Description:
The complex is a heterotrimer.
Chain A: H1 3-26, H2 35-52, H3 57-79, H4 84-104, E1 114-115, H5 122-141, H6 143-153, H7 155-160, H8 165-191, E2 193-194, H9 201-214, H10 219-235, H11 243-257, H12 278-285
Antiparallel strand pairs in A: 1-2
Chain B: H1 2-30, H2 37-54, H3 59-83, H4 90-112, E1 117-118, E2 127-129, E3 134-136, H5 137-159, H6 161-171, H7 173-178, H8 183-209, E4 211-212, H9 217-231, H10 236-256, H11 259-276, H12 287-291
Antiparallel strand pairs in B: 1-4, 2-3
Chain C: H1 2-27, E1 36-42, H2 49-68, E2 77-83, H3 88-101, E3 106-108, H4 113-125, E4 130-132, E5 148-150, H5 155-170, E6 174-179, H6 184-200, E7 203-209, H7 218-226, E8 231-235, H8 238-250, E9 256-259, H9 261-265, H10 269-274, E10 282-285, H11 294-307, H12 314-333, H13 342-355, E11 359-361, E12 364-369, E13 372-374, E14 378-383, E15 386-389
Parallel strand pairs in C: 1-2, 1-3, 3-4, 4-5, 6-7, 6-8, 8-9, 9-10
Antiparallel strand pairs in C: 10-14, 11-12, 12-13, 14-15
Helix pairs in contact in C: 2-12, 3-4, 5-6, 12-13
Amino acid sequence: MSSFTEAVVLQVGISVLLALGYWIAVSTGKYSFGHTAFMAIGAYTASILTLNFSWPLPLAMLASGAAAAVAGALIGWMALRLSMLYLAIITFIFSQLVNLLISQWEYVGGASGMIGMTGTTVPLVLGCVLIVVAYLVLLSRSRLGLAYKAIREDERAATASGLRITRIAVGAFATSAAVTGVAGALSAHQLMVINPELFGPRQALLIILYCVLGGVEYFWGAALGAVALSLLPIYFDWLNEWYEIVYGLLFVALMIVRPQGLIGRRGGGRIRLPRIPAGRERESVG
Amino acid sequence: MLAQQLFNGLLLGATFCLVALGFNLVVGAMDRLNFALGETAMVSAVLGALIMTETPVPFPVAFAAATAIGGGVAVAVYYLSFRFVSADFPTASILSSLGCGLVLTAVVTKAFGSHQRSVPDVLSGVRLDLGVLTVSGAQLVILLLATLLTAGLYLFLERTPWGTAIRAVSDDATMAGLLGVPVQRVILLTFALSGVLAGAAGLLTGLAYHSISPFDGFTTTLTALMIIVLGGLGSVTGGVVAALVIGLIQTLTVAYLSATLRDLIVFILVGIVLLVRPQGLFGRNAGVLERV
Amino acid sequence: MIRAGTAGRVTAGLTAATLVLAACGEGSGSGGAAVYRIGLVTSSAGPFASNAKTMEAGAAYAVKLLNEAGGIGGTEVELVKVDSQNNPATTATLIPQLATKQKVLAIVGPVDSAGCEVACTAANKLKVPIVSPGAARPGVLENARPYGFTIAQPDADNSTPVLTKIVQEKGLKRAAIIGDEANATTKAQADLFRSVFGSTGVQVVKTATFKSGDSSFASQVTSVASAKPDVLALAAGPDDAGRIAREVRSQGQTFTLLGTGSLQSGGAAYVAAGGKATEGTLAAAQYDPHSAAPAAKALLDKAQAASGQAEIPLNFAYAFDAVHMIAKAIEEKGVKSDSDGVVKGRVAVQEALNGMRNHQGMADATTFKDGIAQRPQLRAVVQNGKFVIDKSAG
């Protein structure tokens, strides 16, 4: 395998991991706007361990997953009971806070960041993707997966059915953070460079786009979105300066034609409530 | 110096106020967030600045042009990201308007380059010395126009039939529709109005900052979001007060602490307010928050 | 059951599709055509899009001149352009693409430090020489040696002597510094000013901070003005510095403005952003667009005529020199243009670049020291709306 193929597979694999990690949180209906914080926590934890303590990368990845999971559980516990906008803002603030802390922390190089991490290989990345996919396949067949879905569809009904929704949602959020943290660790050891800039709002948006482009209903939708979006800039570079414009218009067009994403049923798999959707009503009146 | 800093903060707040009000109008009308509003402001400011530097027209004309451009862009965004996008998916309009924002930034970068664009001064000869503080001509213009637009919007919403219609749709679109309010046209008007405010905010911010960068859009949207959450979604008074509070906090943080902490302090404040008082400082109900 | 099965199939399908796509890309690589390929990493998105465009023009112009003169030893040079879209992950993939798919001998770009950090590190790992015509953040090549090079010298080494001299000549006593602490480049500039003021006995009366790109400077300038300095040191990118200058003058302040080399490196950006307020600003500089050195002058005049620009921007000249230095290295070592020799060729080019002394190019003399170009130490002042190199100061 040439180094180009390798680089493509690594990039796609890491993007898929990020998308799958994010999907776990979304599968309970919770959109985070600060998943880069978990990515940063994972990347920095692993980099400190491999660079300064000479840990082997796989072990450092476990540690970074654990660190991200703890942070995820904490944030999730604070914010998951709240509505979508709330959660979006709290998670966004959290990511800014993490970003500020690492940019002020001289031990990890402050604004210049850390440099010189290596060790991300194709088997390692594909192995991680396989493990996460296996987990998600099992999850989608399990009662827990069903519980996630129940919470996504209707929190009140889920509570009424005896689900401890906060605990389940916090668990999902922590798992999601852990996967994202591991992806961050892998990404750091592929790029060989990390700095706070890499974990800004732009990256946060990219993770969300992966997931929503593919569709949030099934996890492979998210994976497909990640594959598509990470291959686009490589194979559509002939668009050159038009790339960003085409990219933006693609989203605009897609949201009109398929607001549920590439994969997924019209209606997002939601159970239609008797409430008439506001948009329709307006059209008939206006 | 404190007086001067407080004035600086007030001025910053006044420009924030306009774009936050624009944001708020749309939230009221559709329960959806228009994430392209910051870019709308940016485009208006860039083109406004272009008119100011390339043509001999006086500032008021350039300002009017910028507001008109803002209104036009906002209407275009409405058709692209809201009118035909299903309301069943809360993420669809957010993503679509983010996409519009991306396109606007890319088009401006392509047409005018990635450098910041200088905004010429207005009334550069004027300086008012009030003892504890001095006010430049540009600052006077900013304060005056921002106050006029805010007051104008308030009167429009409270005293005119169309303003009443906007408030009616904001309260309950279905009921308003049943009572004969042309809901679609009111929503279109709301978007145009929000664009006009954003366009004004863009050019006035450009005046205050002396330049405008094609990458300002996202920051503008973010600040506006913080303001309306702090003030209470859909509340005009809350938006004005929150904008001034955030303007003052940002200025004082920079003056007495560090610019690095500036955004963080605002974020933490908003976070605390959200946890203690979810409907925001002046929110009438938390219902809007639930719906968005 | 059915759903999970579909999931498995889709996942397998996706993996297969990715691999096939990647493999396809690999297959369609360079044929046997005998040309020297040089990669160019640009970015059409992000705050360095304009600089990248300037760089691209410089590199393309250099290749055009080379080929018009019969190429290198009769073989043409081809520029292979890739666009990183200002995205680090994409950059990390594009460098291997240039290395294995396009089989380039060397790479020019990216123009910005953040991009170079990723690209140069990746290129070094693949043993492809890479020359950035603009990355000047301290330590940008830390993990990119021996294959990484930058033609821009970091301010700390280039500007210190000149700034020290300016401070002494002007008899400055009280200084204020304004900088962005969360940005590695401007933070280094602020540290540079602190050390210059420290060594010359100037008292730093106020340090103000800002965040790059997004703030009103009214508050900072009010604070600075209240400390009554003789000089305000601008540890800021050219755009931000220009706005600071505007705010300083619009608040009626008259103290001197002082900048590091990067202020002048930005070409017209500082003056474009600051307008008349920038008049009289003093700065260190490492590039003279109106150099009197014979080799540089001839090239600059020709480029001016060809491009229609009255002043050749720094990134243009640096990219031009980067291409020519690579060409010179290829010629010196007699590197073959066939694709089999490409690995050996890269080693040869790297060795030649590291050994190159005083390359006389469009941007005067360049010598790499540990990959970083040692640039002339010049002094610039803004006069009549543009930076002018103050030749009398030496």
